[in-house]
């Protein structure tokens, strides 16, 4: 079968090149954390400001792979959107929407469920982590298929780059595998092979209670994370109580190697300050945590407080947030629908209702 020509493809020759386009998303499965901010949001804003076409999504359909109380899900989706805007996403320059408003995500997700293999999903560490110590038989089918819907989110826009934290690397490799298998199965050169953008000093922010565990919005302990809605006193108290070891900070970054909690706090400082870890170590070599933690708390409050107050301001007008999400969904749909229609053609589905 010959390759369909996508309006998003330049040239029309093989191998095709795709226009640079960024897609990424965040689950409204809780309030956003410092990990989401440093690993994702802050970098989403940098990419927008580089002038690349950027599409960002509150992935509410991913969120319901684990139980979400409906009123809370609505609140968290709006709060997430407010966090994007407060952090610097301009909904005129970027497309900002919630996933369930663009039905093409679910439609392509189903097709990818038929492309991806059970074995691929079973090997995903996030699936293993989220079912560890629990009865995996009782987990939702959606949680198992999560990476296939994530591949659809990205490939639906022929996105070429996906800024994410380190924890999403394996899911992006699977997105590449799905794109390659689809292209091979149908003899087309239709989906791009996407590039993960995992950059910066805090691609994996760890729990404040356990430096070996990722900071996560669904961690049962609120003390493990800094929420973007925390006020200054709460941020300072959480940092003061963060687990550390008794030694002072080392003279070199190498000295942080076997000290996960110390390394985490230094990485957070570096990412918030926009410095390298080496710079931070130079500034605080030999310092006790009694000195370092207040400096980190001051920095965190200085960087996060303006975002929190802007989020609060935006949250006072939920109808305006819904309007922004609706507008973003219309613009997202206008890109996604023609691509999905080509997928239906490629897979042999009759589309006689099409106008
Ligand atoms: N701790 C983290 N450090 C760096 N980046 C992180 N991200 C999440 N946690 C960290 C990045 O944030 C983006 C959105 O993630 P998500 O909300 O879609 O899902 P997640 O990775 O599963 O995040 P959580 O907080 O752990 O959510 P729950 O608890 O609901 O599973 C991604 O780019 C992610 O890499």
Radius of gyration: 21 Å
The outline comes out as: globular
CATH superfamily of the largest domain: HUPs
The CATH class label of the largest domain is Alpha Beta
Determine the number of helices (DSSP H or I, runs of at least 4 residues): 13
**How much of the sequence is in beta strands?**
5-15%
Distance between the amino and carboxyl termini? 24 Å
The H-and-E topology, N to C, reads as: EEEHEHHEHHHHEHEHHHHH
Q: What fold name goes in the CATH topology slot of the largest domain?
A: Rossmann fold
Ions, cofactors and other ligands present here are:
adenosine-5'-tetraphosphate
Please count the beta strands (DSSP E, at least 2 residues each): 7
| Number of separate domains | 2
> How would you name the oligomeric state of the polypeptide chains in this document?
single chain
Task: Give the topology.
Elements: E1 9-10, E2 17-18, E3 21-26, H1 34-49, E4 53-58, H2 60-63, H3 70-87, E5 95-98, H4 104-113, H5 118-122, H6 125-131, H7 141-155, E6 161-163, H8 169-186, E7 195-197, H9 232-241, H10 260-273, H11 277-284, H12 289-315, H13 318-347
Parallel strand pairs: 3-4, 4-5, 6-7
Antiparallel strand pairs: 1-2
The protein binds adenosine-5'-tetraphosphate.
Adenosine-5'-tetraphosphate is lined by residues 26-27, 29-30, 33, 35-36, 38-40, 164-165, 167-168, 203-205, 214-218.
Write out key terms for the chains shown.
two-stranded antiparallel sheet, three-stranded parallel sheet, Rossmann fold, 51% helix, 355 residues, binds adenosine-5'-tetraphosphate, mainly alpha, Tyrosyl-Transfer RNA Synthetase, single chain, 13 helices
